[in-house]
Specification:
At1g16640 B3 domain, alpha+beta, 16 strands, elongated, 366 residues, 30% strand, auxin signaling pathway, 24% helix, SH3 type barrels
Amino acid sequence: MIGIDLNTVEGDEEEGGPSAEPPRGTVCLELWHACAGPVGPLPRKGSAVVYLPEGHLEYIGEAAGAVAAVPPHVFCRVVDVNLQADPATDEVYAQVSLVVDNEEAKRRMRQGESEEACEGDGEDTDAAKRRARMPHMFCKTLTASDTSTHGGFSVPRRAAEDCFPPLDYNLQRPSQELVAKDLHGTEWRFRHIYRGQPRRHLLTTGWSAFVNKKKLVSGDAVLFLRGEDGVLRLGVRRAAQLKNVSPVPALFNQDSSLSSLGNVAQAVAVKSIFHIYYNPRLCESEFIVPYWKFMRSFSQPFSVGMRFKMKYENEDASERRSTGTITGSRESDPKSHGSKWKCLVVHEQRPAVGMVVDLSAVDTMI
C-alpha cells in the first residue's frame, strides 16, 4: 500500500501517549491472530497431536545431540494453548502444553480413519468459522513519512470508514479522538482528522508517541481492527528486525529448563507435561502436527512432480502466496532413524521469478 508524504502535515498538536497500563490479562484472540499473520492453525486444547523433535530443534537452534534422547515422533494430547505477546517487542507467541498419550494413539489406530477424518473436518470447520468472524481490519506497511516525528499516519479512506467511528463530514475540519488497545491491554489515544488537499484521513496527536514507544521503523506494519465487541485494537508486525528476534521469548529464554529440548526429553520419559514456546512468524514448518494429518501422510505421501500451494510473509510483513512443484526430498538429519521429518526440495514459482529452494515449509510429512 503506497503511503502519502506526511512531512508537510501541520504539527500544531501536542504529542500524547498511552494511558496507565492495566493489569495483565488474556490476549485478544482476534488481535493475536491478526498480528501472527499467514500462519497454520494452532492445535486445539484436548486434541491429539504428534510432536516432532527434529522440527523443534531446527526452530530453537539447539545442538543436534539433544534429539537423540527423544523418540523421532511423540504422540501427545494438547493440555493447553496460551496465547501471549512479548512485552519488549510485541512479537506474538503461543505456549503449547503437551503430555505424552500413547494409549490414545493406539485407540485411534484401532478405530481407523473415520475418527481421524472427523477430527480433521472439525479443525477445518473451526478455521472457516474464524474467517467468517473476521473483524473489520486493515494493515498498512509504514513509510518513512509515517515514522517521521514531524508527520502523522495516513489512513486510506475505505479503511478509516470501515474500522473507525464515523466522522461528521459536514464540519469544516472533521475530527475525533480514537482509543485503541494493544496486545497488552494498554490504551493509546490518537487524534483522527480529515483534512488536506486532497482531503485524507490522518492520525496526528499521539501517533509519534506510539511510534517511539514501539520503536517502529519504515517497513514495519501497523494494523487496526474493530472486533465484534466494537472495541478498537491495534498491533504491529515487525519486518527487517524479525530476523534478529529469538524464537523463544526473552522471558523464557533466560530459563533453560523452559526452552531446552533436554527438558522435553525428561518430560517425555516420565510422561509429564512439557511446554513448547512457539512464535508463528519465525517457525517455517509445523512440528506439532494433528494426529489425523500425521497418519494421512502414510497413505498420501508427497512425491516428485506434485504441485503445491503455500502462504509466506514478505520482509515488509505483507502476505503472499506462491505455487511450485516438488522436485525431491532428503533426510533432515541422516543420523535420525525412523524419523518422518523430511525436507522437501521444490521449484517455487513466484510472479516473474523461478527458483529452486530448499523449503520444508511446504509440509514436513512425506
